[in-house]
Amino acid sequence: MTDENKTNGKVEDLEQRIERVVRPGRKRSKSGAKSGLRPWLAAVLLLVGLGVGLFVGRTYLAPGTAQSTAAVQESRASGEEEKTKYTCGMHPQIVQDEPGFCPICGMKLTPMKQEKKKKKKIVTGEAACKGKKILWYQAPMDPTYRSPEPGKSPMGMDLVPACEGEGEESAEGISVDSRIRQNMGIRLAEVKELPLVKTIRTVGHVDYDERRLAIINTKIDGWVEKLNVDFTGQWVKKGQVLLSIYSPKLIATQQELLIAARQHRAAPSRRTETMLEAARQRLRYWDIPDAQISRIEQGGKIQRRLSIRSPISGVVVKKNVLEGQHVMPGTTLFEVADLRRVWVLAHVYEMDAPFVKVGQRATIELPYAPDAGPVEGTVEYVYPWLNEKSRDLRVRLAFENPG
To answer: Tens digits of per-residue pLDDT, 169-205?
Structure first.
């Protein structure tokens, strides 16, 4: 017997049983039962199949669907929150996804703080204008696209309202939102008519005015017998005696001067006059003034020491001599600087060099004397060479010394 015959037999047997239950007192032929019960049987089987399917769907599919939905939501939430990472307190470059120990120092890793991203609440519609009149609606990415009614922009974004008093352009000026002004750091000031100038800020160092610097030396050898100025920084006046030198050559020349003077007084002649003038000129070469030479001639006394005087008034900035020291001609004894006017050598970068001209006004501020205020000066000279390492140009500024 085939499987199909078995299936037909079972269906007929099931039809007969249903017929007996539905109509217990009625007998039908075998062929009639088959033809009459098959529609009923199909309907019953259809209802049974639907019920079984609904039951299975609620029992198995619904929980799975709910679980999958919850899993999706949970995965989204977990995706939004950053995974906790662990780092070393002594070596912050060590970052791991799981707890453990630092591979460098062996310390236990500590969890890193997670920064929660705050969602900015975006206010749109009429609430964005806070009671102000809505002029139009515009695209957030293209302010030139406007619409009288709310809607969507060509890019699919919601149109935002343009409020009265914000974003309007008129002949009187441009209105900028207060939040934008704060982010841009805009400062407002009264409009004034001023000359258009370029300000160059730089640094510099103070130096001596080379035209007010004097080097004091001697033109005769000898020994320093008396030192009147004995430390650096001492203030001296013009003509003040700095030191006295004993020189055998000076004594011999003075003796020649006195002999020539006595001979010329005793028997004046061209020869004696020439000898006298030669002795005077030799003393002048040693920077002995004519008044002192005249006193030697008239007094007839030899001065044992030669006095060296300061040619200018100023401050002793360098001292290279001690009392009792032997000095030779050309030896630098002192350096005196007149500090009433000083130089400031400013360092100007090459990109600003074209804007610096001789005669321009300059202002310096002294960091060590903030109460003194700015000091005004002028640009005296621009040095014609550039420092190859720092790529800056030296500019000489002249200032009156406020100190």
So the answer is: 444 456 666 667 777 777 888 888 888 888 899 999 9
Q: Compute the distance between CA of residue 359 and CA of residue 391 in angstroms, rounded to an integer.
A: 23
Give the model confidence (pLDDT) of 69-99 as tens digits: 444 444 454 444 567 888 888 888 888 888 9
Asked if the structure places residue 98 within a domain, the reply is: no
Supply the CATH number for residue 316's domain.
Answer: 2.40.50.100
DSSP state of 152: B
CA geometry: angle at 110 spanning 105 and 112, to 5°?
125
Number of compact structural domains in the chain: 3
Compute the radius of gyration of the chain from its Cα atoms: 56
Instruction: Give dist(CA 236, CA 337) in Å, integer.
Output: 10
Rounded CA gap, 275 and 285, in Å? 16
CA distances from 334 to 176, 220, 263, 309, 316 (A): 68, 16, 40, 11, 7
Beta-carbon contacts of residue 375 (< 8 Å; ≥ 6 apart)? 363, 364, 365, 366, 399, 400, 402
pTM for this prediction: 0.49
